[in-house]
Amino acid sequence: MDKDTAERLDRLHMEVSQLREMVTIQTVILQALALKAGIAPQTMMAMSPIPIPAPDELMARLSPKT
User: Fold this and answer.
1) Which helix (H) or strand (E) is 41 found in, with range?
2) What is the DSSP letter of 21?
3) CB hemisphere CA count around 18 (13 angstroms)
4) Would you write out the chain's pLDDT as a tens digit for each of its 66 residues?
């Protein structure tokens, strides 16, 4: 693998990580809004066509990495 390809892969990896973090934050916000509207996280998870992690798992993903 040449240097250019390695740099492109590194940038892609960083962008994917940033997108995952943004999706996690958006999901936390969505769950908070659903709770405010009286919708339990379990109900949201059951209605979603894609898996939604439990709130505690989402918060763990947002915790600072050491």
Assistant:
1) helix 41-47
2) H
3) 6
4) 799 999 999 999 999 999 988 988 888 888 888 889 998 878 888 888 888 887 788 788 876 765
